[in-house]
From TrEMBL, chain A:
Keywords: ATP-binding, Cell membrane, Ion transport, Iron, Iron transport, Membrane, Nucleotide-binding, Transport
CDD domains for the chain: ABC_Carb_Solutes_like
E.C. number: 7.6.2.9
A GO cellular component annotation in the UniProt record: ATP-binding cassette (ABC) transporter complex
Annotated GO MF terms: ABC-type ferric iron transporter activity; ABC-type quaternary ammonium compound transporting activity; ATP binding; ATP hydrolysis activity
Name of the protein this chain belongs to: ABC-type quaternary amine transporter
Signal peptide bounds: none
Any Pfam family: ABC_tran
Length: 356, 479
């Protein structure tokens, strides 16, 4: 087990047709995952996150830059790229990809030495099943007798059995239905924590990325645009596009004056002081809807989407600006109500591109 | 034997060629139309109505596939000498080949989402009108594909048409080759036959490219509510029964009758055993060679996609459209010119089998390799297993069943192959097909019967396999 360091890695694919330039799938990405921690790489489909994962695993070789597990450079910097079978990575692909001709025990023991396999790796298999929270009598089942979530757990157990340096998970939960996704993801996270394994998970699902990770790395068009703990990525995204990708956001123009700024929602407090014209990013949870007092900016409720645990309220301010608020579902307005809005908490301001 | 365009024209521009062309084309067109009509009607009857005992009918309607067409021809002509010429050939061949349309149409009907039909009813269309406007148009690819397959089989058919005395290109090539050994004339006719086959093959490929998936939505398809036949029920049962009687009953009766008559005089157990052993050995060799040849083709086509590998894979399909007689003739000519040593040896015969049946092995093995996605190799590598060990521990165990199935299909196809075997088998070699042929073409019907019976028995497993794969494509009940 070790840390993972990716330094300035770039990978292009040859153009697919005439007139198309070669696509830079991964463009100068630098990422450090400390030993025993868990990073999620978040990005829309086609942003290059799976390519990054396959570069780390060794299925692809970077054009430039280097990849190191701990102090060992496995690719780049004039080192002959290590083939995947000697890198000691655990790889969990999208559909789990259990070997359909082997039972659960043989799948888990697949990466162990010959002796361990012949004794069917009994201890290790039992240990791994326990780690991924599956009953011990699952060892004799065939992959097609398992549910999607169980298959993913076995796939993880298989990747962890040979004690890999790093475990790589390629959208492992995307094919599961919503209920299973949450519980399987939690179980996987616990298993990685219990074995103190360094992990990288690639996903396009914001909730998954934020809720599982020690650190979230956001990718866009091959570049890494932000790498930070989940709350920082959510509350202080590096630019408005990241803000809108990791959650709903109200972006309003405003004028900053040191620690404060003025916008359609009145005066707000900034995360860090700045001056001049700015774009303000406000999360819908920060927009407080006052149903009782006439304090704050007045507006009319246009639409209410009720989810039970909470509800989203679209409000048209008197000046015509449309603002989204998220509030508890216990007491909520109905369309046509007149309400007053206030911003709570700190607000992140962005200087327009090109300004100092 | 090199001939120029003038000689070629003289060989082809003869009244005899015109007659053969007319015979071949009219018979092919008539049989394609008849099998299409019969196949669709029976498929709709079995899959979409409340015909009693539908599963039983399904089994009976597929059964003619187990009777090679030349055995069927023998059964009819040996019962009634008046079955011959166009009418005889048309009737016998239609009864032999309609399952080639019936099976894909049944598979398609099972895959069709009944929600489409239900939508049409809810929009006020009657059951009959829905069948015509919603169901039939969607059957088109299966129907045309099946009919083209009938066409290709018909162009290659030698045994049945020869027994029924209806000359087409294939029978004429064989006669030419056998009687006068006039290589040039036979080769020229084979050229025309190949052109006809390629024409059908191109039509088939074009059709395959346009094919759309029948089901758009996900989830298991439900069984559609069967159409109530009402007063038509028993007349339709009688009609279906008549088809089964003609297609299965008559050949079975004829076979049993000749078996009884033939064995009452003599029962050549030793000859029979020898022919059976030779057939099995040849078929085993052919199956192994063909399956091994299919592996690299499939590997390239699935794992290294590109225009070159696609071309290699597709070119093997051309052989699918080549009649056994053409491949046989080509190998005779080529071996005499290039490697006379192999002429009339088992090696050449096995090579012919490999060329003829490679497409069947490719299709089966390909399906198997696609079950072993590259993702599994990636996982194995990440677990520290090198490429060779991955092939041994992952890929091979996964494709082994399909290799076995492919070899079995080829084995069965070779056991009942007649034309190429007649042309290429070494002198003195007797197989089931050649022994059957020498007896039945000399009108020794009783002597032919035991061979015919063995040929039918050998064909049964392939038929069952075909029925299974076609009905498993509906995936009913699996998520």
């Amino acid at each position: 087990m070790s840390s993972l360091t990716v330094t300035g890695v770039t990978k292009s694919f040859p153009s697919t047709g005439r007139g198309h330039a070669a696509t830079r799938a991964v463009d100068d990405v630098t990422l450090h995952v400390p030993h025993g921690s868990f990073t999620t790489v978040l990005g829309p489909s086609g942003c290059g996150k799976t390519t990054l994962l396959r570069l780390i695993a060794g299925f692809l070789v970077p054009d430039s830059g280097s990849i190191a597990f701990g102090d060992t450079v496995v690719a780049g910097d004039g080192v002959r790229p290590m083939p995947p079978q000697t890198r000691r990575v655990g790889y969990v692909p999208q559909e789990g990809a259990l070997f359909p001709h082997l039972d659960v025990a043989a799948n888990i023991a697949f990466g162990l030495g010959r002796e361990a396999r012949e004794s069917r790796g009994d201890d290790r298999v039992a240990e791994m099943l326990d780690l991924v929270e599956l009953p011990a009598d699952f060892r004799d089942r065939r992959p097609d007798e398992l549910s999607g979530g169980q298959q993913q757990r076995v796939a993880l157990a298989r990747s962890l059995a040979p004690q890999p340096a790093v475990v790589l998970l390629d959208e492992p939960f995307s094919s599961l239905d919503a209920g299973l996704r949450g519980t399987t993801a939690r179980a996987v996270r616990r298993a990685l924590q219990a074995s103190n394994t360094t992990g990288v998970l690639v996903t396009h699902d914001q909730n998954e990325a934020l809720s599982l990770a020690d650190e979230v790395a956001v990718m866009r068009a091959g570049r890494l645009v932000q790498s930070a703990p989940p709350s920082q990525v959510y509350l202080s995204p590096s630019d408005p596009q990241v803000a809108e990708f990791v959650g709903r956001a109200v972006v309003l123009p405003g004028t900053a004056n040191a620690a404060h700024a003025t916008c359609a929602l009145g005066q707000v407090v900034l995360t860090e002081p700045t001056e001049g014209e700015v774009a303000l990013m406000i999360r819908p949870e920060q927009v407080y809807v006052d149903l009782v007092h006439a304090e704050g900016v007045r507006g009319t409720v246009e639409e209410v989407s009720y989810y039970g645990h909470d509800c989203a309220v679209q409000v048209r301010l008197d000046d015509g600006t449309s603002v989204l608020s998220r509030m508890s579902g216990v007491l909520h307005p109905v369309a046509g109500d007149t309400v007053h809005l206030r911003v709570t908490g700190l607000v992140r301001a962005y200087r327009p591109a090109g300004s100092p | 034997m090199v001939i120029g365009p003038v000689e070629l024209w003289q060989l082809l521009a003869r009244p005899r060629i015109g007659e053969l062309l007319r015979n071949t084309v009219t018979l092919a067109a008539a049989c394609m139309a008849a099998t299409a009509a019969l196949g669709v009607a029976l498929a709709v009857l079995v899959e979409r109505t409340d015909l009693p005992a539908r599963r039983l009918w399904h089994g009976l309607l597929v059964a003619p596939l187990a009777v090679p067409a030349f055995v069927n021809g023998y059964a009819w002509v040996s019962l009634d000498r008046s079955v011959h010429g166009f009418a005889g050939a048309f009737g016998v061949v239609t009864l032999s080949y309609y399952p080639l349309v019936y099976l894909p149409v049944v598979a398609m009907l099972r895959r069709l989402d009944p929600a489409l039909e239900e939508s049409a009813w809810s929009l006020g269309h009657s059951r009959a009108r829905t069948l015509r406007t919603v169901v039939l148009p969607q059957l088109r690819p299966a129907l045309l594909g099946g009919a083209l397959l009938v066409g290709l089989h018909l162009l290659a058919e030698f045994g049945a048409l020869s027994l029924l005395r209806f000359p087409t290109f294939t029978t004429a090539i064989y006669d030419q080759y056998g009687s006068t050994f006039n290589g040039a004339a036979a080769t020229a006719m084979a050229g025309v036959l190949v052109v006809l086959c390629l024409f059908l093959l191109l039509a088939e490929l074009r059709l395959r490219g346009d094919r759309r998936y029948a089901r758009v939505g996900r989830g298991a398809a439900r069984e559609s509510v069967p159409l109530a036949l009402g007063p038509w029920r028993w007349p339709l049962v009688a009609t279906t029964g008549a088809v089964v009687l003609l297609a299965v009953g008559v050949p079975a009766f004829s076979l049993v009758r000749w078996l009884v008559i033939g064995t009452s005089t003599q029962f050549p157990l030793a000859d029979l055993a020898q022919a059976l052993v030779t057939t099995v050995l040849l078929a085993l060799a052919g199956a192994v060679v063909t399956t091994l040849a299919a592996v690299p083709v499939v590997w390239l086509a699935v794992r290294h996609r590109g225009w070159a590998s696609t071309l290699i894979e597709r070119s093997s399909y051309v052989a699918n459209a080549l009649p056994g007689i053409v491949v046989g003739l080509a190998l005779v000519v080529a071996s005499l010119r290039l490697v006379p040593v192999v002429y009339q040896t088992a090696t050449l015969l096995v090579a012919a089998y490999a060329i003829l049946f490679l497409p069947r092995a490719v299709v089966t093995v390909r399906a198997g390799l696609e079950q072993a996605p590259v993702g599994l190799d990636d996982v194995a590598h990440s677990l520290g297993v090198g490429p060779l060990a991955t092939a041994r521990r992952v890929t091979l165990p996964l494709i082994a069943p399909s290799l076995g199935a492919g070899a079995a299909l080829v084995f069965l196809a070779i056991s009942t192959e007649l034309t190429a075997t007649l042309m290429l088998s070494p002198i003195g070699t007797s197989t089931l097909a050649t022994e059957f042929w020498s007896a039945s073409s000399e009108l020794r019907y009783g002597a032919a019967a035991p061979y015919a019976l063995l040929l039918v028995l050998v064909s049964i497993p392939a038929t069952v396999l075909l029925m299974r794969t076609d009905s498993s494509t509906d995936r009913r009940g699996t998520p």
